[in-house]
Specification:
This protein has 172 residues and is mainly beta. It has one helix and twelve strands; from the N terminus they run H-E-E-E-E-E-E-E-E-E-E-E-E. It is globular.
Length: 172
């Protein structure tokens, strides 16, 4: 009887580990102080014929800031641009490297999404699904002090001091 209880408990733990964090649907992805809307900055698709870019901008009432989230296996998601159907948040020609900018591209990346508890306001981290040179790369932005907006969405090594890796998702 104990073995059955242990097996059921183990199955419940495994299932919870791979449970969906968000339902499939349309979202705005942003960062900023939750209680101060003027600080909010959003993923903004800048598609073009090639690989486009993803920049960070204040809120706009446009489809360029709306992303269709689709759940995949093992806690992975894809993000399709509503401004450019059939194009996804993904790798540009520079590939999966620290500092590489992400683009609006035809080939989706299945990012791993994890919850980052932070007091009363929870944020989420998007990680590239494969380690690169033994390091986990997360979706961040190039917010270098000497650079003015717009910032670009890029990959950075998880745990690097000073990088921004906590995003919020608002259902549209």
């Amino acid at each position: 009887m104990r073995h059955i209880f242990a097996l059921v408990t183990l199955l419940a733990i495994v299932q919870a580990a791979f449970a969906q964090i968000f339902a499939d649907g349309d979202y705005r992805i942003w960062y900023g102080k939750a209680t101060v809307p003027q600080t909010h900055r959003y993923f903004t698709a800048k598609p073009n014929k090639g690989e486009g870019s993803v920049q960070i901008h204040p809120r706009q009432e446009s489809r360029s800031q709306v992303w269709r989230l689709r759940n995949k296996k093992n806690g992975q998601i894809t993000l399709e641009s509503k401004a450019a159907p059939g194009k996804y948040l993904g790798l540009r020609r520079s590939g999966a490297n620290p500092g590489a900018y992400l683009g609006v591209v035809p080939t989706p990346v299945k990012f791993v999404i994890t919850k980052k508890p932070a007091g009363q306001f929870t944020s989420y981290e998007l990680a590239y699904p494969k380690k690169v040179k033994g390091k986990t790369l997360i979706v961040s932005m190039d917010s270098k002090d000497d650079k003015e907006e717009p910032y670009y969405v890029n990959l950075d090594v998880q745990g690097t001091e000073g990088i921004m890796g906590g995003w919020k998702f608002a259902r549209v």
